[in-house]
Amino acid sequence: MKRNLISNGNFESGNFEHWAVTESGGRAKVVIHKDSYRAQIRVGKHETLRLDTGRFRAGPGEFDLSLQASMPEFKAEDTAVKRQDPPIMFCTLLGWSLAEPFPVFIMPIFFWLSQPQKLYEHHDVIPLGVENVQLIIAFQSVLEPALVGPIYLDNVKFKADLPG
After folding, report:
1. What band does 26 get if pLDDT is binned at 50, 70 and 90?
2. C-alpha count within 13 angstroms, C-beta hemisphere, residue 140
3. Is residue 3 classed as helix, strand or coil in its secondary structure?
4. Who's near 147: CB < 8 A, 6+ residues apart?
5. How far apart are CA 101 and CA 139, in angstroms?
6. Which pLDDT belongs to residue 88?
């Protein structure tokens, strides 16, 4: 039976416990938004902001990655927003073998954040030889960060069977 292997993916600890955050120009914090703890992301102008789960035990086989992301809806008449592409959320899965110092598997997945609120999902297979997985979620910098507003992230899940 598949279960969520990411610790604190709903941020209910009230902080980034079990996550490593690299802000580099943007800002990330856990806040209460719409009666629930969520990661609040404010992208920067020059550098990528990253959230990293660190390595967790997960082996070969099928998996489901899902997360919820929301951002404010912009008024259609705002021409500055029209000139700017919507933010991109890059998810990178790294697969690690205990015998190798470098990842043996890298899977990039990206999502355009163009909806006010959306569930993002990806289904795939981790190859043989992988014993640990790491998820890095990155938000690309934008030309006008003030126009993007906060992005809220919640319910980050990596559902898979634990390796035997």
Report:
1. confident
2. 14
3. strand
4. 74, 78, 80, 81, 84
5. 26
6. 83
Provide the domain limits for residue 97.
Answer: 3-160
CATH number at residue 20: 2.60.120.260
Indicate the helix (H) or strand (E) that contains 66.
strand 61-70
Element (H or E) spanning 115, and its range? none
How many structural domains comprise the chain?
1
Q: Which residues contact 34 (CB under 8 A, 6 or more apart)?
A: none
Listed in sequence order, the residues at least 6 apart from 96 whose beta carbon sits closer than 8 Å to its beta carbon are: 55, 103, 104, 130, 131, 132, 133, 134
* Amino acid at site 110: F
Over range 99-109, report the average pLDDT: 95
